[in-house]
Amino acid sequence: MTEDANAPLLSTRQVAWLFGCTDRTIRNWVHAGHLRPVRVGRSVFFRRDEVESLAGFAGLEGKNNSPENSEY
Are 19 and 25 in contact (CB under 8 A)? Predict the structure, then answer.
């Protein structure tokens, strides 16, 4: 996969919201190699295309709500 500097990024909290789990679960997935983080300074983000790929694998591709519109 080629690295795209303009790829949309999601925060850990946004990814957790999408999967309906906790931030800690997302960190566990990083440790297990399921997700690759993108670090910007001390902040951790995830490429939207990789998250969507994992969501499709998990059967979540039909979720209608956007993490940007959540309460977090």
Answer: yes
Show me where the domains of the chain are located. 9-60
Spatial contact of 46 and 35, defined as CB atoms under 8 Å apart: yes
CATH number of 9-60: 1.10.10.10
Q: For the whole model, what pTM was predicted?
A: 0.71
- Closest-CA residue to 50 (of 7, 5, 6, 13): 7
pLDDT in tens, the chain (72 residues): 455 677 799 999 999 999 999 999 999 999 999 999 999 999 999 999 999 988 886 655 545 444 454 444
